[in-house]
Amino acid sequence: MARCVDVYGQFQPGLTARVSVEDRGFLFADGVYEVFAIFNGQIFDLAPHLRRLDRSLGALGIDRPMSEGALKARLAEVVRRNRVREGTLYLQITRGVAPRDHAFPAAARPSVVAWAKRFDFTQRLAQARTGVTVVSTPDLRWGRPDIKSVALLPNVLAKQQAREAGAFEAWLVRADGVVSEGSSTNAWIVDAGGAIVTHPEGREILSGVMRGTLLRLARAHQMRVEERPFTLAEARSAREAFTTSTTAPCIPVVSIDGAPVGDGRPGPVTGQLVALLWEEIARQTGYLPG
User: Fold this and answer.
1) Annotated catalytic, 159?
2) What is the pLDDT of residues 119-129, one digit of tens each?
3) Domain span at residue 60?
4) Whether residues 172 and 39 fall in one domain
5) Residue 10's domain is classified under what CATH number?
6) Which CATH number fits the domain that encloses residue 263?
7) Are residue 86 and residue 186 in the same domain, yes or no?
């Protein structure tokens, strides 16, 4: 639990923090969010997170609640008050508080809620050494998963399916057999030709910030990358597979639906990418895993 939560500009104790019952985020999932990683007390990849936040707000027609400088200062204060050195920062912006009506309210002001709490990223290093498992499930989400909306019920159901199967993640599969992404991660494979493959940006996926960072690093190191759709069948026959997200920077996938990927162990390409991402985290924040 966070020590304190910024609710509508007022800091409240984490255990008793409350939002209005007429907040449109609560009533309609009419809002967007971002999750940031904190390393060494610093927010990692802050600029691309804020760019994606602006894109999501614009797509839903929600006004930015404050200037970028004011928002950065507010987020830094949330981290400071919660005394987080290694953890996550959650930010949610909704259309605001208004009497319940489906149409946009004429005069509502955007509501901002934010908190930070500790998260042990060293567990991700252990998973990078052993790998994780995933299961597949139909992609039942609405038609705009590229917007980082708080409307996450299909993702929740997919994640629960993975949890009940003892898996780390669920990969979402469209009717045409294409893997779009994970319930809370982006999906990747290393194909038979050795290329690193992930679904291209577009309305079918949420383009993760860590996804963008990994693409940049891979290309900077002359690794072959292809942004193209891949099917579940191709993933099952791939050399390697892995997932990325803000809270799981790069995690090898060693089995899909109970069948091994490659030889059932983390592969060398994924291992190189894991190393590159943690080097980038250290470069930006000075964080070195203990």
Assistant:
1) no
2) 999 999 999 99
3) 4-119
4) no
5) 3.30.470.10
6) 3.20.10.10
7) no
What mean pLDDT do residues 40-59 have? 97
Note the pLDDT tens digit of each residue in 130-180. 999 999 999 999 999 999 999 999 999 999 999 999 999 999 999 999 999
Assign 1 a pLDDT band (cuts: 50, 70, 90).
confident
Determine which one of 72, 117, 148, 159 is catalytic. 148
Q: Reply yes or no on whether the pLDDT at 290 is more than 80.
A: no
Domain edge (last residue) among 103, 119, 135: 119
Tell me the two tokens of residue 236: 């099952």
